[in-house]
Specification:
catalytic activity; alpha/beta; carbohydrate metabolism; Glyco_hydro_57_N; Glycoside hydrolase family 57 N-terminal domain-containing protein; 5-stranded parallel beta sheet; about 350 residues; globular; Glyco_hydro/deAcase_b/a-brl; about 50% helix; 14 helices
Length: about 350
């Protein structure tokens, strides 16, 4: 059985502000009606800012449709934060505010918060698992292209539930969108919207790819704005509907929300930090250095300052060149990759400790 998770991703900033009402009429409302008609379990990836925008621009039909599906447990919200930010570039304070305000908006709208996170940039770094766990999140939905690109893994790995490792032995479950080679599921769905591929051909492709896989999870990433850009939005959504109905009738596909799949998951593969893309160490080290220098001016001989400098110097133990990291393949050099990942996490923790020591000075 192939488990299917459908994620409807809302990015209204792709459309000019003055066309927002048309976007709702031609894309959002018809897509929600389709999900409701098919009783399709759906994850709605939407930021707190977009929910507020729907309220302020009086799109009550959309709000009510979302509330009805959430209350019936047919749908669940995956927040992208309060705004659609690149979380790997944010400080801890900014991250906590992003998640905190998103929680508030979700509670106001649906009577409860969400515990699924879907970053706009498609990725989370070494900092996020611990923060997400403390903020009450149970899983993150990621881009399958990032799994393939960052870890040099085969596309089949995107049909597996992983655990992402972060600082201080923190973990969070992650599910990534399906990708076939260099083509993501979002691109495939867009081709379906535009008629470049047929519902039947796409269904057959998925069946042959996953039929013999061991407990595969197929996350389909659907851009909610794509129909708006088509000459015939209604026809585009109808093509998606034919595709979903085909999967529902095939017998080999079962639609689900993420949590039942996570609860049944066993022996999840572990993902450490994405070493090439993750710049968190540089940010933490710079913050620690600035804080130590500021505190040092008041009492340069303070024991806490000496401890802070030592912790920061320990963080420098992670000193691999970018060329070396680019050559490192997590599948063929597993022990080397694991060692470098461990050192990266330790270095980030040392930089955090340096900030704590400096604050104690």
């Amino acid at each position: 059985m192939i488990e299917v998770v459908v994620v409807l991703d809302y990015n209204p900033q792709k459309v000019p502000q003055e066309m927002f009402t048309q976007l709702c009429e031609k894309a959002y409302n018809p897509l929600l009606n389709m999900c409701n008609d098919l009783m399709l379990p759906t994850v709605h990836a939407i930021s707190g800012r977009v929910l507020e925008r729907l309220h302020t621009q009086r799109q009550e039909e959309i709000i009510q449709s979302l509330k009805n599906m959430v209350s019936k447990e047919q749908s669940i919200i995956a927040t992208k934060g309060f705004s659609s930010a690149a979380f790997t570039q944010l400080s801890k304070t900014e991250i906590l505010h992003q998640l905190g305000f998103a929680h508030e908006v979700n509670k106001e709208t649906f009577g409860k918060s969400t515990n699924i996170f879907m970053p706009q940039e498609g990725w989370i770094d070494v900092y996020m698992p611990g923060i997400l766990k403390k903020a009450g999140f149970k899983c993150a939905l990621l881009s399958g292209n990032c799994i393939v690109d960052f870890y040099k893994k085969a596309p089949e790995s995107t049909s597996t539930i992983h655990k992402m490792r972060g600082l201080k032995n923190s973990h969070i479950h992650v599910i990534s969108s399906y990708t076939n080679g260099l083509v993501s599921s979002e691109e495939k769905i867009n081709d379906l919207f535009t008629g470049k591929i047929t519902a039947k051909d796409f269904t057959n492709e998925l069946f042959h790819l996953f039929d013999k896989a061991d407990k595969p999870v197929l996350m389909l990433h659907v851009s909610a704005e794509t129909p708006f850009f088509q000459e015939g939005p209604r026809s585009a959504i109808q093509r998606l509907r034919f595709f979903i109905e085909g999967l529902q009738g095939a017998g080999n596909f079962h639609f689900s929300l993420p949590f039942p799949l996570i609860e049944r998951a066993e022996n999840e593969a572990e993902l450490g930090p994405a070493l090439i893309q993750d710049k968190r160490l540089h940010q933490l080290a710079a913050q620690a250095r600035d804080l130590i220098i500021e505190k040092e001016k008041k009492d340069p001989e303070a024991l806490a300052i000496r401890k802070a400098w030592k912790s920061l110097l320990f963080a420098h133990d992670y000193c691999f060149t970018e060329e070396y990291l680019e050559q490192l393949d997590s599948s063929s050099n597993q022990m080397q990759y694991q060692n470098v990942a461990d050192l990266y996490i330790q270095a980030c923790e040392r930089a955090q400790l340096a900030m704590k020591n400096a604050l104690d000075a």
